[in-house]
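> forwarded from #structure-qc
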């Protein structure tokens, strides 16, 4: 039966309080983010549910806060890159390609309903070209 091996070897769920602590730490505390990830590698892509469909990973928190150091650390460990992180990090080519293929992504919302444009602006000077591109495309 397909998938049955995974069901047999499925790891235990992470403790919710640990996931929340990791996501909160990743907003701005690199040392604590590193400690928690070393303690539990499964936190890397774990998602905290703030309620009402507002889900956030540690990388998502670092991204909307403009925390490049934490975002790059998490990416170096294998975190899943998304459009919001790419915008914050100033990855213009990635953003242009996604918007070309999926134009409606220009108005997508990330954690806490934060827009793609606001993620780009959180990236500061390095994300200026992404901000300019998004604004020319009508992002708000």
């Amino acid at each position: 039966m397909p998938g049955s091996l995974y069901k047999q070897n499925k790891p235990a769920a992470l403790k919710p309080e640990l996931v929340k602590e990791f996501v909160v730490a990743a907003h701005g505390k690199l040392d604590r983010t590193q400690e928690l990830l070393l303690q539990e590698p499964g936190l890397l892509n774990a998602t905290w549910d703030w309620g009402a469909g507002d889900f956030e990973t540690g990388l998502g928190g670092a991204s909307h806060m403009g925390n490049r150091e934490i975002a790059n650390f998490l990416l170096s460990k294998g975190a899943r890159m998304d459009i919001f992180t790419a915008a914050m990090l100033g990855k213009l080519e990635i953003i242009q390609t996604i918007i070309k293929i999926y134009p409606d992504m220009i108005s997508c919302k990330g954690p806490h309903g934060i827009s793609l444009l606001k993620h780009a602006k959180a990236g500061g000077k390095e994300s200026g070209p992404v901000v300019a591109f998004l604004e020319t495309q009508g992002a708000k």
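QC bot note: The CA atoms of residues 54 and 112 lie 6 Å apart. Residues 16-25 form the longest helix (10 residues).
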